[in-house]
Prior knowledge:
Blueprint: H1 3-18, H2 24-35, H3 39-66, H4 75-106, H5 110-113, H6 116-142, H7 152-158, H8 161-189, H9 195-203, H10 205-216, H11 221-232, E1 235-240, H12 241-262, H13 272-291, E2 294-298, H14 299-313, H15 330-349, E3 351-352, E4 357-358, H16 362-381
Helix pairs in contact: 2-10, 2-11, 2-14, 3-4, 3-7, 3-8, 4-6, 4-8, 6-8, 9-10, 12-13, 12-14, 12-16, 13-15, 15-16
Amino acid sequence: MNVRLCFLLVLGLLSSVFCPAFADDDFQSLAEAYQMEGLDRFVGQQAAAVLKEELAEKITEWVQEETEDRGPKTEDQKQKLKENIKAKIKEWLPKAAKKILEEKVLAGNTELKEMEQEITAALNRSINDNIDHWIGDFYDSRIAPFLQRVSPQALLQRSGFADYLAHQMGEAIGKSTVSGMQNGILKGLNGHLPDEALEYLKMGPEKFQEYSAKLKNYLPSSQFAKLKDKVMGIHLVDLPNQVYGGVLAASAAMHMAKFASSCSGWGATCNWNELKRFKEVTETTIWQLRSKQSVTMNLGDFVGMMKRLGDQLGDLNWSALPQIAKWNPANQFLEKLDWVEGELKKIDALYDQATGKVLDGFDKAIADIEGELKKMSAELLAPLKQKLPCLLAEGCPDFLADFPDITSWEGL
């Protein structure tokens, strides 16, 4: 063998050891993290909950300033009232939104703080483009038609105006946070990845994977891994134990369901890896609830959670999250955790993975523990399952219930 060939073989061996090969999952996970599925709702619903309370108080204050006379209004008076209230909202709401962004989203988060300029710019654009539409549409359809027989005070305070505006602004804060973070990520990757790669990244996971063959020739896999980890490692939230315990319990139940569905009618052919994952996640659930108060969640963790468990978790109302303290609910579930731990040992004694044989009682044991984990998850996540009112006449994908029935307010 000649010297050059020897050198190339050694170099190839060293490259495989010190520069691990690209995996398609690396490209997919980076593109999914960039898309940030579910993050706009996570941020927006919490922001809306804060805005709703503050805005309701402000609207009451403004209405009292503007409407001393509770009787019917002339067209000119109605228009003047609308313009005055609209002007006060347009002056106050952007300041309040930016304060919430600063204090609730960016506060104490160094990584997001570095993207503040991009996030704030996105929010300013959203407010400027939409605020007249938000105020005008609701006012014209839900307030103005009733001013002849219902007092402005009652209409503005009880028509859901504050809820509606808070929802719209919360949505704007959530989407602006995502948009600003995406622009910040593109800035951070600029110079490390070719411009063409950044364009494909914006197109989504499938398109970015299509481009991956070119990207593999552009930079070493170790360098790409560092870039990917930098993006996915952006800190988002310290998720309270009650919520994370519920998420883990749902994940464990999902793995058990997959295992059970993989087994044949005779129990001989099963996906034992799913059973292994079930046991690992269940043990983590028990340890988390017994030992911790919260978990630090980064962008990659959050996106992975929503992707894997979106169907199991259902729609979560994240507006309740600030009210959930960093408490350890283990005491409330001590007996249940002890029972689950005992069932894990029982399951170990009821099957032989090497032969695929199971003993009588195995099916019942796995069904019982799956059911208990689902129940535990539901109890832990109950505060995030409260539904929100719908304040749009055409219905809302994120909200529930109808407008208050203003037609029954005769005589107010």
